[in-house]
Specification:
about 250 residues, globular, about 20% helix, single chain, seven-stranded mixed β-sheet, 14 strands, Photosynthetic Reaction Center, Chain H, domain 2, alpha+beta, SH3 type barrels, 2 domains
């Protein structure tokens, strides 16, 4: 069942392979143009010598809130043999191509029914070993960004600053960043609001800011958000009506 989850909630989940516990999600990589989640970055436990590994959303089989777990349709050995990302940040397209070859998946940038996100068979054969050493001048993917990087950025409205990014809210079925949680405590003590990603104009990595196509007043007057409560359809309707009227 689909649920909207804060990044903080995702990092609380224990990741389970088909044959045992792996570790925990540290952050997510997303496309800053489409807000699609491309990878989960998992900090694996002692059996992997505390390595970080990438998991594509297609690998997620189930999230069990009662147990606080996320099940992955891969074995521990398949994950152990995956290329490490420590030496590959920021990720280049060459690294991504090698990653998808490793798991024998269709990459997300290829159109058609076999693209990532559709029902893909997971390989039964051993993963393909690859060399992840990248040349220093390898082109990087300029639109693949980390959630841990953008959290904390200032929110730049059309007429000035209005808070900072406190968290991101992800749709765990479509694996898309749906909302930015904005903390406006510098202007409105204690108030937090959600901002639809469709209202974001661009992200400035140099200035550490998120520019939105709304006024300060539009954000200030948005329905308040309580992070301890579920985001209901009724609340989402409120947001759409509010921002729709402000943008009109």
């Amino acid at each position: 069942m689909k649920q909207l989850r804060r990044i903080r909630e995702l990092t609380d989940l224990t990741i389970l392979a088909t044959d045992g516990e792996i570790g925990n999600v540290q952050e997510l990589y997303f496309d800053d143009r489409t807000w699609a989640v491309r990878y989960l970055v998992v900090k694996a436990g002692g059996w992997l010598l505390s390595r970080e590994v990438l998991l594509a959303p297609a690998a997620v089989a189930d999230i069990n809130d009662a147990n606080g777990t996320m099940s992955i349709a891969l074995t521990k050995e398949q994950i152990r043999a995956a290329p490490s990302i420590e030496a590959a940040k920021p990720l280049s397209r060459e690294y991504e191509e090698a990653y998808f070859r490793h798991f024998q998946w269709a990459p997300y940038w290829e159109p058609g029914p076999t693209a990532l996100g559709s029902s893909l068979p997971f390989p039964e054969t051993p993963p393909i070993p690859i060399d992840t050493t990248l040349p220093a001048d390898a082109p990087k993917n300029p639109h693949l960004r980390s959630t841990s990087e953008v959290i904390g950025y200032n929110i730049q409205a059309k007429d000035g600053m209005i808070g900072h990014v406190e968290d991101l809210v992800v749709d765990d079925e479509a694996w898309t960043v749906r909302y930015v949680e904005v903390d406006t405590k510098n202007w409105l003590p204690g108030k937090k609001v959600l901002l639809q990603t469709m209202r974001i104009d661009h992200i400035s990595w140099a200035e550490r800011s998120v520019a939105v196509m709304l006024s300060q007043q539009a954000i200030e007057s948005a329905p308040g958000y309580d992070p301890s409560s579920l985001i209901t359809p009724a609340y989402e309707v409120q947001l759409f009506k509010h921002y729709g009227s402000e943008a009109a």
